[in-house]
């Protein structure tokens, strides 16, 4: 019993270390590195419940995703929208999810309204806006 618990604890620690590394890579100068980090975060967020881990890091992660949406191009922006949706799912309908949604809502709307943004980017932002609104918006309007 204690050996299995120890092994599980070590596995969780390794997972958290990898997630921290991916989050740090969101701030890398290389667009390719940021895209790889976004892909890895997308896989992690869609395969495991990480809400406790993310709760402590939500502000840094939200800021990083905002930068990817603002300054990134094409694929990076689309991935950031997807990761944002998954992050909102992880945060849930509590005050943390609502805070994240309200901070990024204007940016998502501006990208949707931008006719020069690529279709995949606008589609990803529309999904993020819809899902986050459904999950985290306390205001019914």
TrEMBL record:
- Specify the Interferon-related developmental regulator N-terminal domain's residue ranges: 7-140
Task: Please report the name of this protein according to its UniProt entry.
Answer: IFRD2 regulator
Pfam families recorded:
IFRD
Give the source lineage, highest ranks first. Eukaryota, Metazoa, Chordata, Craniata, Vertebrata
The scientific name of the source species is Geococcyx californianus
Q: Indicate the family of this protein.
A: Belongs to the IFRD family.
